[in-house]
Specification:
The protein is α/β, with parallel strands linked by helices. The chain has helices spanning about 20-30, 65-80, 125-130, 140-145, 160-170, 190-195, 290-310, and strands at about 5-15, 35, 50, 60-65, 80-85, 85-90, 95-100, 105-115, 120, 135, 150-155, 175-180, 200-205, 205-210, 220-225, 230-235, 235-240, 245, 275-280.
Length: about 325
């Protein structure tokens, strides 16, 4: 049986969105010689986003993939070692911590920063995937601005869907809200707010059949799952708010998580329950989920890692 290649380093960063790259910038500047593995989606969720207009420092806005290229270039310029590869297994029982990359290389690292992000849950429609970034979005706060004065649709029934529908209602003429059952899962207070907002139109017992449009969303076809009635509604934007899934499976059993799989950090820090293991970005943030907050938590994780390594006399 072939032996696994191994390598010993000071600081390993898993993931390459705003959190991972910012952690790499700070860790490199602190001379921790960080190694960052980009994971299954180099650049993270922003690589499937088009215009980003709410990130400070880009007065004209910027394309999501272009912004992630800028982040990566800056991390490389500071001295971070950026690599392709996916973390497939971890062992945090001893120090240094062990992380396997692509099942065939084992990294031993004194400090580990988890920045694996979260993935939006989708309906699974071909048209939804094809028009993602061209009117289809999983983030109203990120993209609602582009639909000011227009009609949009949103699918979802929980607190996030209610919050996003209310946010869109302030920007858009009409928000068509599709709910699969005859009731919402959102908290009572959120339900009341949605029901009392005149430009949110709710469709109960409704499934999304197809997102319509060639190069841009032009409408959506829905079906009442009780009566079978099919309806086409003209909209410019289609928002999916059925939840996010944190990319944390390989860390289960090692770091503390909530019931949804988000990694728990010590309040006010990026530290997890495992000494020397830190978490940043959307894998530990189910509330804000913005590029700028992810970058901020990446900075926190690198500073916390630097201080922890210093306290252990590891340089």
């Amino acid at each position: 049986m072939a032996t696994t290649a191994s390598e010993k380093i000071h600081c390993l960063i898993i993931g390459s969105g705003p959190a991972g790259y910012t952690a790499a910038i700070y860790a490199a500047r602190a001379n921790l010689k960080p190694v960052l593995y980009q994971g299954i989606q180099p650049g993270g969720q922003l690589t499937i986003t088009t215009d980003v207009e709410n990130y400070p420092g880009y007065p004209e806005g910027i394309q999501g993939p272009e912004m992630m290229v800028d982040f990566e270039k800056q991390a490389v310029r500071m001295g971070a070692d950026i690599r392709y590869g996916i973390a497939t297994k971890v062992d945090f029982s001893t120090s240094p911590h062990k992380v396997w990359i692509d099942d065939d290389k084992m990294i031993e690292s004194d400090a580990v920063i988890i920045a694996t992000g979260a993935s939006a849950k989708w309906l699974g429609l071909e048209s939804e995937k094809r028009l993602n970034g061209f009117g289809v979005s999983a983030c109203a706060v990120c993209d609602g601005f582009f639909f000011r004065g227009k009609e949009v649709a949103i699918v979802g029934a929980g607190d996030t869907a209610a919050e996003e529908a209310l946010y869109l209602s302030k920007l858009c003429t009409t928000v068509h809200m599709f709910i699969r059952r005859d009731q919402m899962r959102a908290s009572k207070v959120m339900q009341e707010r949605v029901l009392n907002t005149p430009n949110i139109k709710i469709y109960w017992n409704t499934d999304t059949d197809e997102v319509l449009g060639d190069k841009q969303v032009t409408g959506v076809r829905i079906k009442n799952n009780r009566t079978g009635e099919v309806q086409t509604i003209p909209v410019n934007g289609f928002f999916v708010a059925i939840g996010h899934q944190p990319n944390s499976d390989i860390f289960k059993g090692w770091v503390n998580m909530d019931e949804a799989g988000y990694i728990k950090t010590v309040p006010g820090t990026a530290a997890t329950n495992v000494e020397g293991v830190f978490a940043a970005g959307d894998v530990q943030d189910k509330i804000y989920r913005q590029a700028v907050t992810a970058a901020g938590s990446g900075c926190m994780a690198a500073l916390d890692a630097e201080r922890w390594l210093g306290s252990k006399g590891i340089h």
